[in-house]
Amino acid sequence: MKNFILLMGFILISSFALQAQTTTKIKVAGNCGMCKGNIEKAAKQAGAVTADWDKAAKVLKVSFNASKTSSDKIENAIAAAGYDTEHKVATAEAYSKLEECCQYDRAGKTGLAQTESCCKPGASCCADGEACKKDMSKDSKDMTCCKKEASCCKDGSCCK
Known about the structure:
alpha+beta, Alpha-Beta Plaits, 2 domains, three-stranded antiparallel sheet, two-stranded antiparallel ribbon, 5 helices, 31% helix
């Protein structure tokens, strides 16, 4: 009877833990096995329980506890590691720190973010519907506001 009660308690606790898990897929640019390790490590450091980046599809499948982290935080960590995601763009500085084999083609990306937000509440580029577009050439750190390059956020979230 004691074992039965312990088993039922374990099952109950496990079911609550599984309900809190969120699984999602995120497009992430990269080239090689080293990229795979870096991307998965960044995701896990941001709170992902599991992370598996598919090199061919350029898709990261992550599971995480939504009460502890979010896909936005995970994407921020991946971008900070130098990899562009579908919603976040790595800075030129973070990208330049990648090994040469990991420096993927940024200009030819499809389906990945190519803008970085200048859309903070009250920012002048938001007022006119402009977005801040990052020059994607390898050595550039320039940011310029461009009309209608991307939809600008009204609430201060990232441009897409």
